[in-house]
Amino acid sequence: MAALLARRGIRVGLFSRGRPKPPLIGESTVPALVPILRELGVEEEVASYSVFKPGATFSVHPGESLAIDFDEVRGRAPGYAYNVPRDRFDVSLLDVCAKNGTQIFDATARLEKLPGSDARAERARVRLSPETLAETDGFFATPPDFIVDATGRTRLIPRVLGLPERQGDRRDTALFAHCTGVRIDREGHVHTDRLERGWGWRIPLPDRVSVGVVIDPAALQEFGDRPDAQFDAIRRSDPTLIESVGRAERITPVLKFTNYQLTARRAIGPGWALVGDCLGFIDPVFSSGVYLAMDGAQRLAAALLNGSANALERYDRRQRRHVEAWRQAVGYFYDGRFFAMLRLRNQSHENWMGRIVSPHAASHLPRVFTGESTARVYDRNLLAAMMRFGLGALEDPDWARWRIG
């Protein structure tokens, strides 16, 4: 967003106090992100250090997997994406900002509620603290006209103002680390494994594989108290992970994320806006986080360049709808319907419903993984209709057995 605004002559300051070392969540991207990389002029650079991602593979249980090749279901998005080392990817984006005229400050921005603001959180104003203004060395001689919060799960503006928020339906814990010696069944594919309890991911990176486990925190306690002990115990005890990750060598510490299904109920206010994970992060299962962040940044830049209150309101409505659409798609994954419909793609049917639904499942359902099935109203409604009515076409109607515990 900073790069797109600076290109148009807007005076933009970006506060970015370094980045943590890998592993960082958000390493697998979706094809819908590629056009944004092209607009920024960084696709070739990102491709040079990333793993080409031609599709996604789902392990339903040991011995059964379902693969989706992006090129076979491509619509508006390209037929590929990338698995990115996040430390290098973030540097690429910061470089684009600098090259386009953004002033980058190696500092942490501090915000405060403007005295005398409206008592209602969503109508209150914020400002940079005097200390933060001073750190800009005159770049912001006066307070900026607009402040964008892209602080992710830090959620700076929501915390300062006490913005209303929506908790997700689940309270899972995610553990992940980088490993070597991990089995990859299809080159470049992100692998999603349905486990005895919860699910896991395998994301191939240039010289390693990102391995994650998502599990209910109550079940997690059975595997010890420390994240590294829990991670290692799960991968060496779950039947699916034993085959692919059990003997792998872990080469990084284990990171732990909890209660991440959180969404702000408002994306804009007087002189401020939220973008990316700060607005809402749903779940890592469909690799949607980086796409939602950068798609939102692109939309917010357009709204700010438009300059009208109506444009910002449209951004607010669209992004909250977009987040909600991903929330619904994630719900289909956890309640078992998504796996059931994936299996429907490979079934032949004699009943009339099967003949109608199966072609849609084959061509449309995989576009969740390209990022396309949540962007348009038609796509979202078709996905919801398939999940509501299409299950009647299954040869095996007991779809609830694919539920993620």
Can you walk me through this structure?
With 405 residues, this protein is of the alpha+beta class. The chain has three domains: 109-168 and 261-331, 3-Layer(bba) Sandwich (FAD/NAD(P)-binding domain), CATH 3.50.50.60; 173-257, 2-Layer Sandwich (D-Amino Acid Oxidase, Chain A, domain 2), CATH 3.30.9.100; 335-402, no CATH class. It contains 14 helices and 20 strands. The strands form six sheets. Strands 3, 4, 11, 12, 13, 14, 15 and 16 form an eight-stranded mixed β-sheet that branches. The two termini are 38 Å apart. The relative contact order is 0.14.
Q: Architecture of the largest domain, CATH level 2?
A: 3-Layer(bba) Sandwich
**Helix and strand composition category:** alpha+beta
Write down the domain tally: 3
Q: CATH homologous superfamily of the largest domain, by name?
A: FAD/NAD(P)-binding domain
Distance between the termini: 38 Å
Quantity of strands, as a count: 20
Rg estimate, integer Å: 22 Å
Oligomer: single chain
Number of helices: 14
CATH secondary-structure class of the largest domain? Alpha Beta
Give a concise summary.
With 405 residues, the protein is α+β, with helices and mostly antiparallel strands. 35% of the residues lie in helices and 20% in strands. Strand 3 and strand 4 form a beta hairpin.
Topology:
Blueprint lengths: L1 H6 L5 E3 L18 H7 L2 H7 L1 E3 L1 E7 L2 E6 L11 E3 L2 H14 L3 E3 L5 E3 L12 E3 L1 H5 L12 E3 L6 H6 L3 E3 L5 E8 L9 E5 L4 E7 L2 E8 L1 H4 L6 H9 L3 H6 L4 E2 L4 E4 L3 E3 L3 E2 L2 E3 L5 E2 L7 H18 L2 H26 L2 H8 L7 H12 L13 H13 L16
Parallel strand pairs: 1-6, 3-12, 9-19
Antiparallel strand pairs: 2-5, 3-4, 7-8, 10-17, 11-14, 11-15, 11-16, 12-13, 13-14, 17-20, 18-19
